[in-house]
Write a structure and sequence with these properties.
Elements (H helix, E strand, L loop, with lengths): L2 H8 L12 E5 L2 E4 L4 E4 L2 H4 L8 H13 L12 H12 L7 E5 L2 H16 L3 E5 L8 H6 L3 H5 L8 E4 L14 E7 L12 H14 L2 E5 L23 E4 L10 E5 L1 H4 L18 H16 L6 H11 L7 E4 L4 E4 L3 H13 L2 E2 L2 E2 L2 E7 L7 H15 L1
Parallel strand pairs: 3-13, 5-6, 5-7, 7-8, 8-9
Antiparallel strand pairs: 1-2, 2-3, 4-10, 9-10, 11-12, 12-15, 14-15
Bound molecules: 4'-deoxy-4'-aminopyridoxal-5'-phosphate.
4'-deoxy-4'-aminopyridoxal-5'-phosphate (PMP) binds next to α5.
């Protein structure tokens, strides 16, 4: 059996039709398959490889950490320099109320931890989330994602969850002194890049403050420069009570985090002690990699390039079959009339060396969330392939 057949037979499958590309190497914004074919990567592992694949500073940091130690103790007991230093770097680039970082292994675990923290801090049980939001696949995160098709088969899920319409002022009336937390994506990703109106998200912030509800913003996709600012919430002049991070946080290694004020975070130390436990969360190699990645992102000026790249994509993606383009930074949904049209375009793109896919709750939209370091030449080439694929 070849590698692909072994993959289909022995690796747990999640789709009847996986892309099943056999990638043997990845560099910057390019993937290489087992036959030596090159692909321009327009999705970056779904908003993970913001500074590209295998950034040399990330590789060097990983190698250095390998020489020191791998896993040494469960989370929160030993002083592990990669965690401490990365928490410090993150906090230096966040508002002062976001000053304590709890590292997890994944985005979903950050969501789980934050929901527990909100219940513990507020002594309330109701959780408010929004239609068409995605927050992860574990049972707590699944309970709050905004689509019944994905939730329904796994009931019973968490009780006392209220799903509201996003970017809708009437929804805010449902938030009350019963609500422990509101969890929202700063910009809805899997809905097909839907940004909120500034007035609405500011009103949401105010409603949470007025009712003593924690506002949890999920920036697992919108963080780390993707939107043209380091954090998505900076576009709206608000600060969440809890910030959720993942994906690009580990620069290619598995890492998630939730960030809050230390006064809130300390709720996990008492009644019960060890209120949130993880063996591998904040793995030293992941933290070393993530910190090197974040430094590279900031020092090399990639965030400043986002606007120009966004405009270049938008100017080149012109075709009668493209109904609309929604973008918020280097993060775009290219809309077609149907999933069938989109799938044909995606298949033709992959056949012609451009990797892209669709959105979970917007299957008629093609995803563009490339490494922020994608070159102008690659962007031009990729857009030409997409436009040709539309024919
Ligand atoms: N929130 C958002 C906005 C996401 O896009 C994702 C992953 N696609 C998650 C949470 C869950 O992250 P993970 O897959 O690492 O559990």
């Amino acid at each position: 059996m070849n590698q692909r057949e072994l993959f289909l037979r022995h690796v747990g499958q999640t789709s009847p039709a996986p892309l099943a590309l056999e990638i043997v190497k990845a560099d910057c914004a390019t993937l290489y398959d087992a036959d030596g074919k090159e692909y321009i990567d327009l999705i970056g592992g779904i908003s993970v490889a913001n500074i590209g694949h295998r950034h040399p500073k990330v590789i060097a940091a990983i190698q250095q950490q390998l020489d020191a130690y791998l896993h040494i103790m469960v989370y929160g007991e030993f002083v592990e320099a990669p965690q401490v230093q990365y928490a410090k770097l993150l906090i230096e680039h966040l508002p002062s109320s976001l000053n304590a970082v709890y590292f997890t292994n994944s985005g979903a675990e950050a969501v789980e931890g934050a929901m527990k923290l909100a219940k513990r801090v507020t002594n309330r049980t109701q959780i408010v989330a929004f239609n068409h939001s995605y927050h992860g696949s574990t049972q707590g995160a699944l309970s709050i994602i905004g689509d019944e098709y994905w939730r329904n088969a796994f009931r019973p899920l968490l009780p006392d969850v209220l799903h509201l319409a996003y970017n809708n002022f009437d929804s805010l009336n449902e938030i009350s002194v019963q609500t422990a937390c509101v969890i929202a994506e700063t910009v809805q990703a899997e809905a097909g890049i839907k940004a909120p109106d500034t007035a609405w998200i500011q009103a949401l912030r105010k409603k949470c403050t007025d009712t003593g509800t924690l506002l949890i913003l999920d920036e697992i996709q919108s963080g780390f420069g993707r939107t043209g600012k380091l954090w998505g919430f900076e576009h709206f002049d608000i600060v969440p009570d809890v910030l959720l991070l993942g994906k690009a946080l580990g620069a290619g290694m598995p890492l998630g985090a939730f960030v809050a004020d230390k006064k809130l975070m300390d709720a996990f130390t008492d009644n019960p002690v060890l209120g949130h436990i993880t063996t591998f969360g904040g793995h030293p190699v992941s933290c070393a990699a993530g910190m090197a990645g974040m430094k590279a992102l900031l020092e090399e000026g990639w965030i400043g390039m986002v606007k120009k790249n966004e405009e270049l994509f938008a100017s080149l993606l012109v075709h009668p079959k493209i109904k609309a383009i929604r973008s918020f930074g280097l993060w775009m949904a290219v809309e077609f009339d149907s999933f069938e049209t989109n799938k044909k375009v995606i298949d033709a793109c992959i056949a012609n060396g451009v990797v892209t896919d669709w959105f979970l709750f917007a299957s008629n939209c093609l995803r563009i969330s490339p490494p922020l370091i994608i070159s102008e030449q690659q962007t031009e080439k990729a857009c030409a392939v997409i436009v040709k694929a539309c024919d």
